[in-house]
Amino acid sequence: MTWFRRVRYRAEPPMARKRYVIQHAIPSADGSLTPMGTRAELVTGLATCNTGPDQPNGTVLYGPGIELVIAPGEDPVRQMEMAVTDDDIAWTIIHRMKKQFGWKFIDPESGRTF
Fold first, then answer.
1. From CA 52, how far away is CA 61, in angstroms rounded?
2. How much is the pLDDT for 32?
3. Which end of the chain is flanked by fewer CB atoms within 10 Å, N or C?
4. Mean pLDDT of the region 78-89
C-alpha cells in the first residue's frame, strides 16, 4: 500500500512594491515644494524615458519597472509617487530621471533621500 501525502500549495503573496516620493531637488526660497513642471511638460519629458500614461490625461504613468502617480488636478506638479514594479530594470530608469530632471527620490519608510 502506498501512502500519499496531501500537500497544499498556497500562492505566494505578491511582493510588496517599494514606494518613493519624487520631488524637485532644489528647494524654493520660501520653503515650499518647487514645481517639477506642468503635467504636459512632465509627460513630454518622461516620454524620453519610455514612460507615459495609458490614456490621455491619465494620472498614472507607466514605464520600465515603475509606475508614477500624479495627483489628479495638480498643475503644476510639485511631487509624484513612484512604485517600483520590477527591481531588475527600474533602477536604470530611476538614475536616468534623476540625472535628466534633477529630482530627488525619498523613501517614506526610512526617510532616506537619493
1. 5
2. 87
3. N
4. 94
Backbone angles phi, psi at 81, to 5 degrees: -105, 140
Query: Taking Cα atoms as reference points, which of 48, 70, 73 lies closest to residue 61?
Result: 70
**CATH class given for the domain over 18-106:** alpha beta
What size, in residues, is the chain? Answer: 114
Is a pLDDT exceeding 80 seen at residue 59?
Answer: yes
